[in-house]
Every structure is written in structure tokens, then in C-alpha cells.
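Case study.
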Amino acid sequence: MQIGSKFTIGVHIITAIDYFKDMDRVNSEFLAGSIGVNPVIVRTVISQLREAGIVQTQRGSSGAELTKRLDEITLYDIYKAVGSVDTEEGLFHFHEQPNPDCPVGRNIHKVLDQRLIDAQKAMEEKLRSTTLADIVEDTRQAVNNESNEEKE
Amino acid sequence: MQIGSKFTIGVHIITAIDYFKDMDRVNSEFLAGSIGVNPVIVRTVISQLREAGIVQTQRGSSGAELTKRLDEITLYDIYKAVGSVDTEEGLFHFHEQPNPDCPVGRNIHKVLDQRLIDAQKAMEEKLRSTTLADIVEDTRQAVNNESNEEKE
DNA sequence: GACGGTTGTAATATATCACATTACAGCTAA
DNA sequence: TTAGCTGTAATGTGATATATTACAACCGTC
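After joint prediction, the assembly is written out as follows.
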């Protein structure tokens, strides 16, 4: 089991929108090329980011813009925006029909649920601690290191 | 996306093995009845718990036994035993073909990977903090509360 | 105002995976 | 030897992630 790639795609999209904002026409096809997926996937993810108030787009004209500062967007915001984990169901899928006639069966939910929620929250808190400013900065840094290595 | 129910089934199994150890013949059919799944699923999960050194079984004769003390088994041990998350791949599925000709594309992995690993580890650490002794105790407690409520 | 380029989204296809189910050989205790 | 159980393979089925095609709605520009 894995959390779908729409999450890392979302991070990639926002990073690229900022990174290329003054250089290229950052449309869905350009992004799809950088990410390595179909343009429709990019548009779908951008739609979800738009609904979450993170980016802004316009039909017809090309290019998305961020509506928040990079340091106000966390990994968690993107994770949430693209629906990485269903809010109702949670990260852990509980077996659905424990037997109510069995003392263990009818209490296991009660006993486990909060601990599972806590584990999920611990992961989500970690995601909150990184902002897209961190990601973009680290990306620029990595690119700089590349050109330094070339010179040697 | 969700972590499969084999994890909560595993917890249920160990809890029931301990809870009923002096009362019933705890075979795969009995467990399947308590959990509400097919007996083969139970046997599969028990197989994985056995490979992880948590339970011990015998062909022919019925009933599994724990090979560790309850307070030496954590939720994480079960999570790991049943392969809730693939060790190679990790919890987060990264899009697989970021473009190496794009500065963002060829660096996004480097920049994101450690942060994703950290988030996953935070969740797993939480799972480590609960032992099956906690779960069984809370279950007995819950059962006691039931009979108290009846008397009122 | 017609046109090229773009977005938003529906519809469909495909592969993978979780779980269910059947079947049966191997084993143990009585 | 028999009854009952386990271990596991094989197969079915539904759900889901991602890819892809198609097209209407829309914008800036000539």
C-alpha cells in the first residue's frame, strides 16, 4: 500500500511553478514534461490545488500562479489538497465486520482507533513542518551544486 | 489510499489468542468468526506473524501460541510483520519518471525523499509506543465496563 | 470577431492490488 | 485410521491509481 503519487506530483508542480515563473510558459504540458506524466493528471492536481486556495489559474491563458507565499504552504497542505488519505476513513483500513457477539470483536475498535489516529497524526505533523520555501530553496541549492561540480 | 486491514486483523488475532487462551479452542475458524473474515485470511496473517517470531503454530493440532510476552509485542511489530508498507518503496509513492533534463525534475527526489521518510518514521514511532499488553488490558477493561453498565 | 492555444472535466481503458473463496495436501492427536 | 486442523496454491472479483482520448469553455491576439 502506498499514498498515491498525486502528492509528490503536487509538490513538483508548485516547485516548478515558482522555479520557472520568470523564465518559461508554465502550462500543463510543460509541467507534464518535467514530471513525466500525462498533462491531464497535471490539470487534475492543479484543480485540487486551486480548490484548496493554493494556486490560481485562468482558462484560455496559460500558466498558474501561487496565491500564497511559499513559506505559507506546507507539505501537509498539498497532501490534504490532493486527498492523499480519505478524511473519513483514515490512513489505516480497519477490518469491517468484527463480531459484536465476541467480547474482543465488539471492543477492538474502541481500543485501537485512537492509537491509529495518533499514529496518522504524527506523520501529518511531520509534513506540516516542511514548507514549500524549504523545498524550492533546497532545489536551487541542488542546482547550484551541480554547476559547481561541473567546474571541478 | 489506506493501509490494508491485515494490520488490524493481526492485532485482533493476537488479542484474541491471549484473551481466549484458557477458554476456547482458538483455531483459524474461531478467529475468523470473531474478526469477520475468511479463515484463510486468518491463516495467512498468522503465517506472517509466525515468520516474524511472534506466534507459534502446529499443523494438525489446533491453536496458536504467542512466543513473546504481550509487553514485548508492539503495534509496529505487527504492522511490519504483515507488510503493511513495502520496505523498499516506502509509504509515499513517488512519481516515477521526473525529467532528468529539467533542473526541478532531476532534483526533486533528492530534495523530498528524506522528508517523506521522516514523516513515515514519525508514524511508525507512534506505533512502537503501544504494546499488545496495552491493547489486551484495554480490552478487558472495556469488557468490564460493559458488565457494570448492565447492572445499572 | 475569428483563431490558436489553453484549461476543465467527463468518459473510458488498463494494470495492480486487496480480499474472498475453493481446494487439497500435510500433519497431529486420539 | 480417522477426524480435524493448518499451510498454501490457485482463482475470482471488485476497487483504485494512472493513462489517454475527446471536447466544450475560455482567453489573448491578430
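Observations recorded in class. The helical segments of chain B are 6-19, 28-35, 39-51, 75-81, 108-128, 132-151. The radius of gyration of chain B is 20 Å. We will return to this complex in the next lecture.
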